[in-house]
């Protein structure tokens, strides 16, 4: 059958549109600018927290008899001199569960770290400290949980919440002295608490009675209030990513961002990340559903009430461990660990624009040897997204950081 001239024209037009879209995606050139950090050799586990115009990077640094939590503030293209929040000899230090320093408002900042209990193993507590002078001085620590059980308390996310400091964390109190099974008896829970500036507590509530044991939590603030993401766990061992919104003074029941249907009998240690701007929300995560590794992203235009179909960011050859940020023009930037070998990786980044057009994959960690057991960080600051990760150099860990600037976005002065 011969093809009509009109049919040929439509095909050529479709091809032209496809090629134009691909060219537009591939024309998103970036400049990756390395940022020297003040972290000492042996430092690890950076955390990035943005708020009120600040971008704060915190990390764990070894000292002769223990560890200390330090932080730095990004000023243009330079990290400030490091400051110390706290130190201790009995800290729980783990690549997947690590401290943070978070600017709550212009003056009030919050920090958390983890301290081992005498029982040892995975029995440890969350310690929270506040600063009323932008991190210059810090209060004595308090515990957000009061159960006193020799179990795990960690994977904390701190956030600003109605003039107070909110936090969600994984809480193992139900695992004390009981077998851990899929019926919910002895399972890990997700809890919420909050503090006022004087460290008085206002809440300590279970908000999900059965969740994955050791995947990071995350929270973003939309126009409607906090939106939390975490890896859930059903009685059938489906461990997909759930979203939970705080509305009208209460947390609503969690529900899946996408129905991946990942059935796995243990924790994958691969939590989700979330970002919000107004009513726009985006979530990135890793899944191994169907025995196929995949990094995915989904967007919401109604503050997390509903999400669009997920976009595949990377398939195969991925360790996951996502980061996420909105770019200066409203695209979504997602970072993750690209597999190089069984134990090493590179930090990769990809942007997703309108109509879910995907840009090229960029390696932003250069020639760094990046341990597979790490959680790179990503945050928006000014006209750029900023990344931070743990690398290895001369047999020691070291913290790296970089600004990634879109070529079509003017640099800030």
Question: Can you put this structure into words, describing what you see?
Answer:
- The chain is mainly beta.
- The protein has one helix spanning 5-26; strands at residues 30-34, 44-51, 54-63, 66-75, 78-79, 83-88, 100-103, 109-116, 124-131, 153-161, 164-171, 189-195, 201-208, 218-222, 225-231, 241-247, 250-251, 255-256, 273-277, 280-287, 294-300, 311-315, 318-326, 332-339, 344-352, 362-363, 370-371, 377-381, 384-393, 396-406.
- Strands 2, 3, 4, 5 and 6 form a five-stranded antiparallel sheet that branches. Strands 14, 15, 16, 17 and 18 form a five-stranded antiparallel sheet that branches. Strands 23, 24, 25, 26 and 27 form a five-stranded antiparallel sheet that branches.
- Mean pLDDT is 90; it is low at 1-28, 179-184 and 409-413.
What share of the residues lie within helices? under 10%
Number of helices: 1
Mean pLDDT: 90
Major sheet characteristics: 5 strands, antiparallel
Short description:
With 413 residues, the chain is mostly beta strands.
Question: Which terms summarize this structure?
Answer:
413 residues, mainly beta, 5-stranded antiparallel β-sheet, 1 helix, 5% helix, disordered N terminus, disordered C terminus
Per-chain topology:
Layout: H1 5-26, E1 30-34, E2 44-51, E3 54-63, E4 66-75, E5 78-79, E6 83-88, E7 100-103, E8 109-116, E9 124-131, E10 153-161, E11 164-171, E12 189-195, E13 201-208, E14 218-222, E15 225-231, E16 241-247, E17 250-251, E18 255-256, E19 273-277, E20 280-287, E21 294-300, E22 311-315, E23 318-326, E24 332-339, E25 344-352, E26 362-363, E27 370-371, E28 377-381, E29 384-393, E30 396-406
Antiparallel strand pairs: 1-30, 2-3, 3-4, 4-5, 4-6, 7-8, 8-9, 10-11, 11-12, 12-13, 14-15, 15-16, 16-17, 16-18, 19-20, 20-21, 21-22, 23-24, 24-25, 25-26, 25-27, 28-29, 29-30
């Amino acid at each position: 059958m011969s093809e009509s001239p009109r049919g040929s024209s439509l095909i050529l037009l479709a091809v032209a549109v496809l090629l134009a879209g691909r060219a537009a995606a591939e024309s998103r050139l970036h400049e990756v600018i390395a940022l020297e950090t003040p972290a000492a050799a042996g430092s690890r586990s950076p955390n990035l927290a943005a708020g009120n115009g600040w971008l704060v990077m915190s990390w764990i640094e070894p000292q002769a008899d223990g560890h200390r939590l330090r932080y730095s503030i990004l000023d243009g293209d330079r990290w400030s001199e490091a400051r110390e929040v706290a130190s201790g000899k009995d800290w729980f230090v783990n690549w997947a569960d690590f401290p943070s320093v978070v600017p709550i408002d212009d003056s009030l900042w919050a920090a958390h770290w983890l301290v081992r209990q005498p029982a040892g193993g995975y029995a440890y507590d969350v310690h929270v400290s506040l600063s009323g002078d932008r991190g210059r001085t810090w209060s004595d620590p308090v515990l957000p949980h009061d159960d006193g059980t020799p179990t795990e308390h960690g994977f904390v996310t701190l956030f600003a919440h109605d003039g107070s400091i909110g936090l969600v964390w994984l809480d193992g109190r139900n695992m004390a002295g009981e077998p851990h099974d899929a019926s919910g008896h002895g399972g890990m829970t997700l809890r919420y608490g909050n503090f006022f500036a004087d460290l008085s507590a206002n809440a300590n509530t279970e908000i999900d009675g059965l969740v994955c044991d050791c995947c990071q939590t995350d929270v973003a603030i939309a126009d409607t209030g906090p939106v939390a993401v975490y890896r859930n766990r059903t009685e059938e061992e489906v461990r997909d990513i759930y979203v939970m919104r705080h509305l009208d003074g209460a947390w609503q029941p969690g529900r899946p961002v996408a129905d991946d249907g990942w059935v796995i009998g243990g924790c994958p240690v691969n939590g989700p990340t979330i970002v919000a701007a107004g009513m726009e929300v985006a979530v990135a995560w890793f899944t191994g559903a169907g025995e196929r590794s995949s990094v995915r992203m989904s967007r919401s235009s109604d503050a997390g009430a509903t999400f669009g179909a997920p976009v595949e960011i990377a398939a195969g050859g991925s360790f996951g461990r996502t980061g996420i940020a909105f770019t200066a023009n409203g695209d979504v930037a997602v970072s993750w660990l690209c597999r190089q070998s069984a134990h090493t990786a590179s930090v990769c980044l990809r942007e997703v624009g309108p109509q879910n057009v995907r840009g090229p994959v960029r390696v932003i960690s250069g020639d760094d040897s990046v341990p597979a057991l790490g959680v790179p960080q990503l945050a928006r600051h000014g006209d750029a997204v900023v990344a931070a990760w743990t690398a290895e150099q001369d047999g020691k860990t070291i913290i790296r950081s970089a600004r990634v600037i879109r070529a079509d976005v003017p640099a800030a002065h």
